[in-house]
Amino acid sequence: MVKISTVYEGDLHTVATHGPSGKTLATDAPVDNQGRGETFSPTDLLAAALGACMLTIMGMTARRLGIDIKGARVEVSKEMTPPPRRIGKLATEIWIPLPRSADPQGQLEHAALTCPVHRSLLAEIEKPVVFHWQE
Fold first, then answer.
1. pLDDT digits over 26-59, tens only?
2. Element (H, E) at 42
């Protein structure tokens, strides 16, 4: 179990603390929802978590396969729905610095699509993923 503690600092700002490491991160409401957009919003963190999770699980798979994906990157584009606000779409693009032939049986792509964050998202959220392989 990992505990994250979050404190509301006022003016739509929070600071979350990661229990095991003591590291902190701040949030602000987005400009289109009463905030100043000075840092990640809570829903931005979900988009960031999705990208980080996909790359991490791909990294674990690559390590097991004896290949290096250092330099792989992901971009997640978050779209909100009209009120009532919720995340409607998380469009993801992943760039992998290897030729597609380096991914036996599509194991890296499978790893990305089965990361815990991706699997935890509601089915109602559109989650298209595009993989870009080095040619």
1. 999 999 999 999 999 999 999 999 999 999 999 9
2. helix 42-65
Residue 55 burial by CB count (10 A; 0-12/13-18/19+): exposed, middle or buried?
A: buried
pTM for this predicted structure: 0.95
Asked if 42 and 87 count as a contact pair (C-beta separation under 8 A), the reply is: no
In DSSP notation, 57-81 reads HHHHHHHHHT---TT-EEEEEEEEP
Q: Pairing between strand 13-18 and 24-28?
A: antiparallel
Tokens of 44: 């931005």
Place of tokens 């610095």: 97
As a whole number of Å, the end-to-end CA separation of the chain is 42
Answer for the pair 82, 72: CB distance below 8 angstroms, yes or no: no
